[in-house]
């Protein structure tokens, strides 16, 4: 195998983290900001891109890093390597409430496509690249734009889903209609497109957007119940507006209650 063979355990229910066990000289590559903790003897090294093109010299490194710019991610990733003796652990945390999903690429033909911010970490040797949409409608209205992420190789990668995760195994020709923001990822054989909701009432008053994502089997699809964009939108909608204070929720005293509890903003 090209990728390192890692062992792992996932802890928690709603705010999960994954603990990865590394044998000597084994490594894991992680997204910036996902690190939680590690044992003494684990070395940390920041690299361009995902490290899969390091043997190709400077040009390979630049190309690998450049792909990440297109997905809106940082130029750099971090490799954690067991430089000591015996087994060591390093842990990575989910960025918001949800589930961490292990993806064994050997079970999916060596490739898995996911939304741009879903990737968390992977065994060293797994390539983290980009997947272009070749369909105009999907790129404009699919919720993910023209570019998604993909993991390639023969190792294990981890992606994050918001809320509760649903796994659907689609049979050949079976179609699943999904809110465009609820897609976490899918296997390479799944045909991903968009479909107009249809109907004047549905379009104007439905409140669910103008398009569905349609996922046609065969293949495996992962769906999240709470996309981060939906969570952020609700938080933003309830945030106090500048100069207006908050809504006084939870207190019949409203603004007077703020004065009494020490919140003296005006």
Key words describing this protein structure:
six-stranded antiparallel β-sheet, 19 strands
Task: Explain the overall architecture.
With 266 residues, this protein is of the alpha+beta class. The protein has 5 helices and 19 strands. The strands form 4 sheets. It has a 6-stranded antiparallel sheet with strand order 5-6-3-10-13-8. A 6-stranded antiparallel sheet has the order 11-12-9-16-19-14, with helices on one face. β1 and β2 form a beta hairpin. The radius of gyration is 21 Å and the shape is globular. The C terminus is likely disordered.
Characterize the main sheet: 6 strands, antiparallel
- Our Rg estimate from Cα atoms comes to 21 Å
Helical content band:
10-25%
Unreliable spans are 136-145, 247-253, 259-266
Contiguous helical run count: 5
Strand content: 35-45%
Determine the structural class based on helices, strands and strand pairing.
alpha+beta
**SSE order, one letter for each helix or strand:** EEEEEHEEEEEEHEEEEEEHEEHH
Overall 3D geometry?
globular
**Beta strand count:** 19
Cα(first) to Cα(last) distance is 62 Å
Indicate the mean pLDDT: 79
Strand order, sheet with most strands: 5-6-3-10-13-8
């Amino acid at each position: 195998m090209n990728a390192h063979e890692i062992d792992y355990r996932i802890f928690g229910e709603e705010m999960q983290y994954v603990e990865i066990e590394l044998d000597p000289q084994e490594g894991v590559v992680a997204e910036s900001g996902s690190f939680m903790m590690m044992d003494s003897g684990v070395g940390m090294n920041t690299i361009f891109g995902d490290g899969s093109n390091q043997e190709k010299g400077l040009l390979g490194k630049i190309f690998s890093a450049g792909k990440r710019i297109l997905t809106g991610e940082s130029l750099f990733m971090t490799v954690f390597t067991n430089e000591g003796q015996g087994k060591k652990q390093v842990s990575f945390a989910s960025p918001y409430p949800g589930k961490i999903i292990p993806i064994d690429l050997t079970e999916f033909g060596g490739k898995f496509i996911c939304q741009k911010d879903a990737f968390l970490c992977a065994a060293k040797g797994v390539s983290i690249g980009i997947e272009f949409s070749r369909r105009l409608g999907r790129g404009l209205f699919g919720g993910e734009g023209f570019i998604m992420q993909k993991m390639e190789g023969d190792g294990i990668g981890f992606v994050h889903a918001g809320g509760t995760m649903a796994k659907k195994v689609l049979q050949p020709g079976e179609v699943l209609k999904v809110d465009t923001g609820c897609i976490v990822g899918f296997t390479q054989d799944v045909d991903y497109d968009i479909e107009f909701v249809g109907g004047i009432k549905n379009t104007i008053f439905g409140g669910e957007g103008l398009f569905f994502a349609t996922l046609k089997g065969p293949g495996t699809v992962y769906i999240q119940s709470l996309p981060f964009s939906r969570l952020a939108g609700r938080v933003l909608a309830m945030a106090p507006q500048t100069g207006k204070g908050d809504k006084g929720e939870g207190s019949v005293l409203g603004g007077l209650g703020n004065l009494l509890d020490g919140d003296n903003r005006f």
